[in-house]
Write a structure and sequence with these properties.
mainly alpha, 4 helices
Length: 122
């Protein structure tokens, strides 16, 4: 259950980072455009190589964060699936579900048998 709480918390935390990520991506794009436009016009780059690598890396990382972060609804759905799956893996629950399934099968067979008998009589 702790994993589930941690998952939901991290999704909320990452969702709060989206506006900051958009800002960083925007700044990276602007600086890279300025750098490459100065290279085309003046023949020299304004940004040092390390800074250019930083902007390109941050562009890819934060764009990935923006694109691949699930929505709140998807995160809740995933958490529900995880919790349900975890619940169903418990042996006690599994045994009870198996017993309930057997009871349903017996009742269904009884109803089908009675229906067939009624159809034969008619």
């Amino acid at each position: 259950m702790i994993e589930l709480m941690l998952f939901v918390y991290l999704i909320g935390l990452v969702k709060n980072l989206i506006p900051i990520s958009v800002l960083i991506v925007s700044i990276s794009i602007v600086f890279l455009i300025i750098n490459f436009s100065s290279l085309a016009v003046e023949g020299e780059e304004i940004l040092p190589k390390r800074l250019k690598i930083f902007f390109i890396t941050s562009l890819f990382v934060f764009t990935s964060l923006i694109v691949f972060t699930p929505s709140k609804e998807t995160a809740i759905l995933l958490a529900g699936i995880y919790a349900g799956n975890d619940f169903l893996k418990q042996e006690e629950v599994s045994a009870k579900l198996k017993a309930v399934n057997e009871i349903i099968d017996m009742k269904l067979q009884k109803i089908l048998k009675e229906t067939k008998e009624k159809m034969i009589k008619e």
